[in-house]
Each structure stands twice: as structure tokens, then as C-alpha cells.
Amino acid sequence: MDCNPLCYLAIGDSLTVGIGVPFLDPGYVEHYRALSQRILKRRIIYKKYARSGATTEDVLTMLYSPIVTEAIKCANIITITAGGNDLINAAKEFLRNKDEKIISQAIKQLEDNYSKILERIHLLDKQDKYIIRLTNLYNPFPEIPLADEGIKAFNLLMNGFSRKMNVKVADIYSVFKGNEEAFLSKGGVHPNGKGYYHMALALSRLGYSPLEG
């Protein structure tokens, strides 16, 4: 294994925190790091900046804190999970007001925030080679048509970001579809250990170009 380590920075919400598995059990970040080390044959040092309930706006704000700014400058691999809480907040507002514009406005805001997040990272990252990996959203409420509609709209938007420099998007939606019982924790919203491993696998399968070789 190469003794020159790569730096991995994980930013985001409860999925990056690893909510849904027992304390000290690996979430997707730890699984992805292990898979990446094996594939790249390089030691990978990782840092995690995440909090439960974080929206895309919160993640954007995180990127301006000095400690995260410094971490971005050194990062070869960056993963981001965000968007689920934006949609949950919009859904709650929709249930109160029954105004369908709320969901489309939330999607527009998500697009705007993600564009700014990627812009900020590209501006700061000083590495010759680095990759950014995003995830779309799985649907923890497959029995609610409105939830699936909102998530599909979000996922369509996320696919568009895969055209950006160094960015690829993992299709978590398809991984979890039909496997909700096996991959979600008892609360039914966050992944369990198996779910997080399959998230990491989906990210790993996106490849590592231009970091390989």
C-alpha cells in the first residue's frame, strides 16, 4: 500500500453522521473509505463534518467555516449527502398549506444550493486530482405517492450535476428500491449497517478516475 495517503472529506446530514447504526459501528463513510483504500491501494485519512437535520443551505454554510475550508483545500475525495431534510421540511409545509408550489420551490432552492456548494469546492480545492461524489435519495416511504414524486424530481435534478467537472452521482434510489426492509434501520428512515454498506458500494462503483494510476 502506498505510504503517501489520500485525504477524504465527508460532508452532510444524518447519512454522513451514520444515524441508524449503533455508536462506533461503520456508516457509509467508513465503508467507502475501506473500499477506496482497497481499490486505490493507498492509505486514506478521512474527516467528517456533518450533523443530523442539516439542509443543503446548512451544508453550504459549513463550507465557509475555516476548519472545513482548510479540509477542502487538501481533499482528494469529497462525498456529500444533503437534500433529504429540505424535502422533509417542504413536505411538512405542504401538509399544512396544501400548496403544491412549495415542493417545486424547494427543488429549485436545492438546485441553487447544490450549484453553490460545488462552485465553492471547485474554488477551494487545491489538489491536482480530486473527485466529488454525490448521492441521490432513496425513498423511505414507498407507500406515499407524493414522497416518491418529490424524490424522483430531486433525483432528476441530481443527475444533472454528474455533467460537472470531477462529479459523479450514486444512484441510491435504485439500490434501496424493493430492499427497504433489508436496508433500513428499525425507525424505517435511516439505513442500517447493510444499507450503509450498499450505499458505499454504489459510490465505489462510480470509479476513481482521475485518482487511479
Task: Give a summary of the structure in a few sentences.
The chain contains 10 helices and 5 strands, in the order E-H-H-E-H-H-E-H-H-E-H-E-H-H-H. It is of the alpha/beta class and 213 residues long.
Task: Determine the CATH topology.
Answer: Rossmann fold
- Poorly predicted ranges (pLDDT <50, ≥5 residues)? none
- Largest beta sheet, briefly? 5 strands, parallel
Q: Output the CATH homologous superfamily.
A: SGNH hydrolase
Mean pLDDT: 94
Cα-atom radius of gyration: 17 Å
Describe this structure in words.
The protein has a single domain (2-204), classed as SGNH hydrolase (Rossmann fold), CATH 3.40.50. It has a 5-stranded parallel beta sheet, with helices on both faces. It is built from 10 helices and 5 strands. The protein is an alpha/beta fold and 213 residues long. The chain is 51% helix and 16% strand. The chain has helices at 14-17, 28-40, 56-62, 66-74, 84-97, 101-124, 145-161, 172-176, 180-183, 193-204; strands at 2-12, 42-50, 77-81, 131-135, 167-170.
